[in-house]
Write the structure tokens for this entry.
Amino acid sequence: MHRLTTRRRSLHYHTHLLSDSAKDQNHLISLRLRPIKPETCVSLIKQCGTIKTLKSVHASMIRSHLHLNLFFFTNLVSQYASLGSVSHAYTLFSASQSSDAFLWNVMIRGLAENGRHDHSILLYRQMQEMGIKPDNFTFPFVLKACGHLRDIEYGEKIHRDVVEFGYESNIFVGNCLITMYGRCGRFDISRQVFDGMPEWNVVSWSSMIGTYAQNSCYEEGLLLFFQMLDERIRPNRVTILNVIPCVCRESEADEIFRIVVNNELNFDQSVQNAAMRMYSKCGRIDIARRFFDGILDKDLVSWSSMIEAYVQADLPIEALELFKQMNLKEFQPDFVTLLSVVRACLNLASLRQARIIHGFVTRSFFKHEIALETAIIDLYVKCGSLEYAREIFDRMQERNLVSWSTMISGYGVHGHGIEALDLFDDMKKGSTKPDHITFVSILSACSHAGLIAEGWRCFNSMIRDFEVRPRSEHYACMVDLLGRAGQMKEAREFIESMPIKPDAGVWGALLGACRIHLNVELAELAAKSLFELDAENPGRYVLLSNIYTSLGRREEADQIRALMKRKGVKKIAGHTIIEVKNKVYKFVVGDRWNPQTDAIYAELERLMERIREEGYMPDTNFVLHDVEEETKEKMLYVHSEKLAIVFGLLNSVPESVIRIKKNLRVCGDCHTATKFISKVTGREIIVRDAHRFHHFKGGACSCGDYW
DNA sequence: TTAGGGTTAG
């Protein structure tokens, strides 16, 4: 990350140099005309806009036999550093015969401002070893460096120095302490410093608010902001930038916006960008878009923020469209933008889009950023292509824990348990140690593939070999593993033997297993806990209701539906998406929005007839409504999965693979029907559901009917 | 004092 910051900084300097070059030309000409006088020396140094000019001034000073005293030295060091040349500054600094705190401060600041935070701290240490006392200018620079490095230990040491040298009541030092502790995640100490200060300025308030924002203490941040207004302190634009991340409600957003207007604060680009994010976070993507459209000179952050807003709002198509427009305007996406765009694609499940974005990344400056490469591996996994995912994984220059875990879980969700285990073995041979997430990946891979003995082996090796203590997620994976395999008694005993209290994930795994094996007794036990622990989750109620329906216990199923209504829990509407000829189409149950609706329904009718001849029997247990059998069958026919598949069949070349994505778990009847469809049409159909992947081919599914 | 996000599972 620091590398990126430096890169951005140098880019900034570059433009800065260009704009100043004309001014510098005049500067150089005037230098040649007259010798340098001591009294004009410092102002000449400060006017230099490029290293080249500064070097000429420096040379003229030597040519003019000017005595380079400490004051001139310090100004030269400072100017070299602020023009981005730390090496020149440091050479000069080291060459100085004498030194004082001023010179050291300038060098420490120069290092910190050029992203060399660790060196800046090192220099602070050396300064003390040399017996030079730090002053009220030293502390802010070096505290800032500690904040950047998240080095709280050294930050605390400097805090002790602050007390020792008697700068505890200095408002500037205090403000920097607040920020340093905040960046290190200790907002509680920041608050102690804030409360202990003898006086505050607008920076103190802003820093404390920003600290709360950074540590996700939004309530506290907002509270302090309004307290600040009560104290009649006028906020500035940085206060606004700091408080904006704390805003979670539309009414608060309106209030902040009103304050900006009333105080006539500069509504510049960064405030506009922030306002945009504020409204998008409150769920008002429309207002965010209005702000975006209103920004006259949009910068990369504006575009990036709006794209991310669409991703957050689960509007991937809009996000990608904006990305396209951004490229047309010849904005080069950077690391942050690309990560957003990858996440947009992830929600779309479009392999074609994944290829395009991958191409973009490959041509960009950031192609070997591990986070981005890993995100793309995950993207290919989620778009159904393990081959591409593995290709990138194998070609990575560097892999970290996350890359390994991603690839392992990729094999897992596609039901390739053996490959996941092989990769896990490879990982163990190297220097990367698996963590708790790797174990979730490998255990769920075993579960998806029904590998019970291997699952047990992994679970037992967690603490023994890797000192990873099982968490509730791992217990949930084991319950899932045992339950899917029908070992219901073992699953129950496993839960009873847990050393920690089972959470919703554990009970949910048991309930899911009960749905497959129709075990009402255990289902009711699990549901009892779930209706307390996870009362808002509609999926839990639907599962139990389905179990009752499957066993013909309609009254109890009705009771569950009534319970949902009473509690105000709404079923999530299912939908399926499919991409055809570069366009993404979305289907809901009984959908008639598609322009090809008539053709789809006609083909559906024909297809259903054909698979019936092959032996398909509609499983009407998956229809919740209390209606006649024949109507039930009709309702199954129009499930979004089936509509999307038929649409895919109608609009793709023979023998191509059909890929669809469902937002919920695929319905049991659709699963059976899809197996038959893959057989009669000879097509491969890949379904991504909320849980895993199903590869349908020749009448069978890769999940082995476990899901 | 300050800007967009932070990759893996469930």
